[in-house]
Amino acid sequence: MTDVRVPTLGESVTEATVATWFKKPGDTVAVDEMLCELETDKVTVEVPSPVAGTLSEIVAAEGETVGVDALLASISEGDAGSDAAPKAKEAAKDDEAASQAPRNESGASVDVMVPTLGESVTEATVSTWFKKVGDTVAQDEMLCELETDKVSVEVPAPAAGTLTGILAEEGSTVEASAKLAVISSGAGATAAAPAQATAPAASGAEISGGKDVEDAPSAKKAMAEAGLNRDAVTGTGRDGRVMKEDVAKAIAAGTTAAAPTAAAKPRAPSAPDDAAREERVKMTRLKQTMARRLKEAQNTAAILTTFNEVDMTEVMAIRNAYKADFEKKHGVRMGFMSFFTKACCHALKEIPEVNAEIDGTDVIYKNYVHMGVAAGTPTGLVVPVIRDVDTMSFAGIEKAIGDMGKKARDGKLTMADMTGGTFTISNGGVYGSLMTAPILNPPQSGILGMAKIQDRPMVVGGEIVIRPMMYISLSYDHRIIDGKGAVTFLVRVKEMLEDPRRLLMDL
Fold first, then answer.
1. How far is CA 425 from the centre of its chain?
2. Taking a C-beta distance cutoff of 8 angstroms, is the pair 228, 251 a contact?
3. For residues 94 and 101, what is the distance between their CA atoms, to the nearest angstrom?
4. Residue 468 dihedral angles phi and psi, to the nearest 5°
5. What's the order of all strands across the beta sheet hosting 463-477?
6. Does the domain at residues 2-81 carry the CATH identifier 1.10.3720.10?
7. Which CATH architecture group holds 285-505?
8. Pairing status of strand 173-175 against strand 423-427
9. List 69, 149, 482, 506, catalytic entry
10. Closest to 181 in 3D by CA, of 167, 194, 193
11. 101-197 carries CATH number 2.60.40.420
12. Would you give the DSSP letter of residue 439?
């Protein structure tokens, strides 16, 4: 009998909540197969099986709070786990066959492994394969892309040759240092590839011969609604399973049901097929994590937002007067972000609680500014961090923002690039937002929202004049920042932007 216990949860974390059990008593488990998921106030931790066997007892049920090293469950080894052993052996044989196939005549084969994912990151999801079995690849050519909770990681080919085996399909979860694929070089590689490429077709034939394959739930629903028989649809998924898009293709091609199922509802011949016009796409790990963290921020922090407006006349005048000389000397364009970053750094020194965070019953004041700059990318929102921004010049800030922006667009951000921020700026104005109230980026206590610059009539010196105005906002954690501090912070930012000379004089 082997005990399954709560693993180390991280510095200063002493307890967790059992969120989900993936197995139930009596189920067979393999070594390192996920048993359950724990949630702390900072991270989600998956608990793998330490041995192969049968889950004999669950001690901590879902929803219970457990401490570090607490007993979660018990696993019986030996004969009880015999069902798991053949599966593991069979998988090992498959891996061995895949790795040995290219050695027949080519001589050399190279394993494609999961690269280092970053500190505390133990697994990733295979999001996209850029190559298929049988394709020739050059050294360092991109083979696939992995997604973790925070970043996307591209996997290059370690050697030139032919991709002779893909061991981790799109959508599968792989652990750090797991094998993804096999590359073989030489003439034998070319010969081995077609044989393996025909494997799916053979597998499909086996399926049609009666192999039990579970079709996608969305495909089952679409077939039922369309009145299609399973035999009338050609499956293109793994092992020949029918996917939703296969059903849509069958409907578009005019396929009729061979024997409508009893569950199919009568449909008017001209009724539009809503299911065929829908598309279900699994959320990326990045989006899943972002959604969870934003909701956690709403559930945990007492978020409040205060607004003000800034007359951008002086900032725009300085920018127009010096932008050409600035770019010529420093090799980077002068934008508005450096002005806002500088103004926030000055205001954070005056109102230090905005640059602090709550840790249990303590408040941690940061005597430095690591500025997060929110940026939208094709894969989702990311917040790269510029460290010690309070010590940087205008040119240094613009260069750092430009470099981080390029890395974000190219999907090159690392874990280190997005951790450790103490305050964040979110510029919704670049998308046309007139007013914004951003959500906190935990564990930070404040985030500045920028909107677009718009000419508006303003009363200045008793006269109505047209001025370029911008609404700004501060979303803050009311548990640590009171209303006076939040309003004062935003007023200081406004004052320094409307009279940028205050930035030079540290006023």
1. 20
2. yes
3. 10
4. -80, 110
5. 303-311, 463-477, 446-460, 423-427, 371-373, 385-386
6. no
7. 2-Layer Sandwich (3.30)
8. unpaired
9. 482
10. 167
11. no
12. P
Positions of the chain with pLDDT lower than 50, given as ranges: 79-94, 96-107, 187-211, 255-264
pLDDT value at residue 190: 46
Separation of alpha carbons 35 and 38, rounded Å: 10
111 catalytic per annotation = no
Residues of the chain with CATH 3.30.559.10: 285-505
Full-model pTM: 0.50
* Cα end-to-end distance, the chain, whole Å: 69
Instruction: Kindly report, as residue ranges, where domains of CATH 2.40.50.100 are found in the chain.
Output: 2-81, 101-197
Is 482 part of the annotated catalytic residue set?
A: yes
Half-sphere exposure of 155 (CA within 13 A, CB side): 29
- Give the number of other CB atoms < 10 A from CB of residue 463: 7
What's the per-residue H, E or C state across 367-399?
Answer: CCCCEEECEEECCEEECCEECCHHHCCHHHHHH
Nearest to 373 by CA among 329, 325, 308, 438: 438
CB atoms within 10 A of CB 431: 10
CA neighbor of 30 nearest in space, from 3, 58, 55: 55
Q: Tell me, what's the pLDDT at 311?
A: 94
The single-letter DSSP state of residue 331 is S
User: What pLDDT, on a 0 to 100 scale, did the predictor assign at position 405?
Assistant: 84
Place of tokens 């690269």: 115
Q: Are 470 and 452 a contacting pair, CB within 8 Å? A: yes
Q: Cα–Cα distance between 32 and 51 in angstroms, integer?
A: 7
Comparing C-alpha atoms, which of 85, 248, 94 is closest to residue 169? 94
Active-site hit among 140, 390, 478, 506: 478
Q: For position 15, what pLDDT does the model report?
A: 81
Query: For position 272, what pLDDT does the model report?
Result: 67
Q: Distance between CA atoms of 413 and 286, rounded to whole angstroms?
A: 12
Instruction: Identify the pLDDT of residue 98.
Output: 47
User: DSSP string of 144-180?
Assistant: EEEE-SS-EEEEE-SSSEEEEEE-S-TT-EEETT-EE
Residues in the chain: 507
Residues 6+ apart with CB under 8 A from 407: 384, 413, 417
Cβ contact 436:449 at 8 Å: yes
User: What's the CA gap between 9 and 41, in Å, rounded?
Assistant: 10
CA dist 356 and 340 (Å) reads 19
- What is the C-alpha to C-alpha distance for residues 39 and 487, in angstroms, rounded to an integer? 35
* Residue with tokens 């652990």, as numbered in its chain: 175
